[in-house]
Amino acid sequence: MIDYYAHVAVQDQLRVQVGAAGGVSPSEQARLQELVDSASSEEGAALTGLFVDQVLAQAASDGVEASLLESAGALWKRGGALYDGVGEVRKAVEEAVSAPDAPGAVDAFNGAMSRMVDLLRDAKRLDSEIQQLRRELRPLKHLPPHPRQSDLPLSAWGYGDTFLARRGAAFTRALFDRAGGDSAATALAVGALTAYAGNVTGSAYLGHGVGGPRRSHRFRDRLARNAVGSWCAGQFAVPGPGALADKLRSQVPASGGPNPSPMAQFLAQALQDAYDPAQTPPLPDIDLGLRRVLRHLELYEVIRRPELPLPLTGTLGAVVSATSNGGLPQSQEPLLYPQSGGGTVSSGGEVTGADTTDQTSDNGGSCGWAGLIVFLLVFSIACVVGLIEEGDCTAGVRDVWDALVGGDEPEPTQVTAEGLTALAQSPVGPQIAHRLFEAQLGLWQAADQAFNYLALVGLIPPDDLLLTSPLYGQFLTLPPRELYPLQEDPMAEKTYGFDPSTPPEHPLQQASPFGSGDDPSVFVVGKAPEFALDLLLRIVREEPEAQNLDADADRGYLHPCWTTGSGGSVHDDPVPVQVLGYNET
Predict the structure, then answer these.
(1) Which of 103-112, 226-235, 320-329 has the highest mean pLDDT?
(2) DSSP for residue 505
(3) Dihedral of alpha carbons 464, 465, 467, 468, sign
(4) Phi, psi dihedrals of residue 560, rounded to the nearest 5°
(5) Is residue 6 within 8 Å of 244, Cβ to Cβ?
(6) By mean pLDDT, which of 79-88, 337-346, 392-401 is the weakest?
(7) Half-sphere exposure at residue 130, Cβ-oriented, CA atoms within 13 angstroms
(8) CA 403, CA 344: separation in Å to the nearest integer?
(9) 3-state secondary structure 441-464
């Protein structure tokens, strides 16, 4: 299964290929163009079809991932408010120190000092909730084992896994058969067909990079899927998650309605046409899946790395530069503008910060940023108090330390008009402004680490900055892959950042037709739209399908849907692969 962004990129490339299609009659060309035009004019319906795999997976899930992402989004908003608050304090202090005689300057300065203490209270509450979220994320329970890997019967699978492993071509045919002349239904059918083509080819690309299918490498697969999707978003100018959510929103009903939405009913009818209900799990609540997908996209828009704060410039910056080494003491080692590389793979061969630290501990890993937020604010307030009262940052820190250990909060410091003027005329005022810049930069670093962590555990896709990291870059150029697939790694929660070192799973298969060094464009521009166009042509020509292909590419490129048969297990050597006929579920 590929990512939202990769699906959209494939659909855009299908439009290009339809426009340049050769070997078709004028009437066929006109019909093909009519079909892709319907997806352009009914964007919400087309996205519903394009994301149907995600919709069904979310509808059938236990809701753990949706809940964790919701919690992360709420905390991110509060953290963003904290970051912005420190920025506003900075601005007020800089303006007051630059013009101490301006009307309201004293009140603005004192108000900023009081607000710093309020922000500290907010940070303490935020800290405990961040730690709780971390405890919930660390076991990676939002990425549960695949039912095939657990040898469960098909009837006990989640519907999302069932959908990817069975009758994908038959489902797309059922959609077109039911669409008739309805433009929205046709757009959904085109989207679903494109998603099927994208999954069949793109999942082979993912498996090639990962070393095996999602079934046996679920943590590594999620990392790869998100990396490839983010790469596609940038490479093919895919709309951002907020824009995709806006396009999809018209198709998503509010919760609590008495009846399924029209799109949910349409999808349910096609699923009932394609799948044998005696062998498959019950249909999930499709509208619930739609709401979760919409919320996913909305929260991806929320959880973004903040902009770096700007350092002091002009007169204030010049004073700080002149006095920081020879005048007033530094509060800490200078914080440099960081370059995030997602440094989350240790030299010991483990993915640090995900699930490698002691499960009973709340320290370690990449979540030191939680306590860092509170420490930064306490340290900054203490330093400012020391500078104002004694001209010495260190003295303020020493005075406040006992209060910090005891859980008490420092009192906000206040100045008179004469005191503010004195601060402005000495190096102390600029140094106070500089300490606040350091605090805001430290909060940025905490947000940077938090973003990296959420991407590392697969809850959000990496951004452009993280894609420059080898951790994600390894999936953007394919390695040589002589043995495929590789068996599940029993230590995967600690090692999923690295290529598996496990033995191959027999029978061996071709991972993909793609070459070493190929990037995701080999399926986005080439194989996926070609495959989708071929499917559309067969539908236009009313030619029958002969085979349903595994949309997870579980056994490699263009492998048919399969089962282990009665009594067989995916843990047998070799795996007893039994290919399913077109009409078999």
Answers:
(1) 226-235
(2) P
(3) positive
(4) -65, 160
(5) no
(6) 337-346
(7) 28
(8) 34
(9) HHHHHHHHHHHHHHHHCCCCCCCH
Percent of the chain with pLDDT over 90: 68
Report how far residue 202's alpha carbon sits from residue 502's, in angstroms, rounded to the nearest whole number. Answer: 23
**In this structure, what DSSP letter does residue 579 have?**
E
Residue with tokens 């979310």: 58
Q: Which helix (H) or strand (E) holds 43?
A: helix 43-50
Per-residue pLDDT averaged across 445-461, rounded?
92
Instruction: Give dist(CA 288, CA 56) in Å, integer.
Output: 9
For helices 183-210 and 168-179, the axis angle rounded to 10 degrees is: 170
Which pLDDT value is given to residue 435?
A: 85
Query: d(Cα 231, Cα 238) in Å, to the nearest integer?
Result: 10
386 three-state secondary structure: helix
Beta carbons of 19 and 33 less than 8 angstroms apart: yes
DSSP label at residue 102 = S
pLDDT, position 408: 59
77: Cα within 13 Å, side-chain hemisphere: 10
pTM over cut 0.85: yes
Longest dimension (CA), the chain: 89
- Joined together, the tokens standing for residue 465 give 């900055």
Helix (H, G, I), strand (E, B) or coil at 88: helix
* DSSP, res 507: S
Q: Which of 80, 87, 79 is nearest to 123 (CA)?
A: 79
β-strand pairing of 578-579 with 562-563: antiparallel
Those residues whose C-beta lies under 8 Å from the C-beta of residue 85, and which sit 6 or more positions away, are 115, 119, 122
pLDDT at 358: 32
Q: Using one digit for the tens of pLDDT, what is the confidence trace for 279-290?
A: 999 999 999 999
Q: How far apart are CA 399 and CA 383, in angstroms?
A: 10
Element at 115 (helix H, strand E): helix 105-137
Angle at 152 between CA 150 and CA 153, to 5 degrees: 160
Binned at pLDDT 50, 70 and 90, residue 129 comes out as confident
pLDDT at 363 over 60: no
User: In terms of Cα–Cα distance, which of 286, 280, 44 is closest to 163?
Assistant: 280
Rounded-to-integer distance, Cα 576 and Cα 564, Å: 5
Could you tell me how many helices (H) and strands (E) the chain has, helices first? Answer: 23, 2
Q: Round to whole Å and give the CA distance between 90 and 39.
A: 49
Q: Which residue type is seen at 87?
A: G
Specify the long-range contacts of residues 248-252, CB closer than 8 Å, at least 24 apart.
248/44, 248/47, 248/48, 248/51, 248/290, 248/293, 248/294, 248/297, 249/44, 249/294, 250/44, 251/44, 251/45, 251/47, 251/48, 251/290, 252/287, 252/290, 252/291, 252/293, 252/294
What value, to the nearest 5°, has the Cα angle with vertex 232 and ends 186 and 141? 90
Instruction: Report how far apart the first and last C-alpha atoms of the chain are (Å, whole number).
Output: 19
* Amino acid (1-letter code) at residue 272: Q
Residue in 469, 203, 518 with CA at minimum distance from that of residue 351: 469
Residue for token pair 């919400």: 44
Q: Which of 308, 11, 24 is nearest to 187 (CA)?
A: 11
Closest by Cα among 189, 450, 155, 188 to 282: 155
